[in-house]
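Record minuted for everyone:
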Amino acid sequence: DICNAALSYGYLSHDTDTCGLHIHASRSIFGDTEIERDLTVAKIMLLVDRWYDTYIVRFARRDLSKMRRWADKPNADIKPGDDDYDAIQKSKDSSHGDRYKAINLCNYSTVEFRFFRGTLKKNTIIASIQWIDTIIQYCKATPLKDLWATGWNEIFCNTGHEELTSYLKQRNLYNIKDVI
């Protein structure tokens, strides 16, 4: 109903440079303790850093120059030899109070995912929310050391989310050859 109302008033979202779809996730869903929550965020940053230029930009429907301006790569610089503590510190250091990152940590109660292009299509909004939910749940359950071997398909090609699966297929991001 909200999307239809916005369209009926002539609002734009996808076809403008002044709009983005920003999804806030409560920090409480990232883990039971502060360390668990911070580690889950660090793991997500690791994957977003790995896949920013290949998959994230395509999923987000933005061109790279606009992504860099409004939702820059986290650049957490997490390395395979880093332990959980190192990964947490690097993820926190990478934000430097800059909200114009793909993953914005400046909000006290939420983590903001701000890389999606604006849309008034219900299924695209739902697919974006499902993508966020899927990566959070995967990173909560997967040890940091195992993420280096994790491919896009492993996380996103069997989620059971109808809208996300359909969206990934439309964007040619479903069951694709993984690029690291």
Summary: The first helix runs from residue 2 to 8. The CA atoms of residues 60 and 116 lie 4 Å apart. The two ends are 39 Å apart (CA to CA).
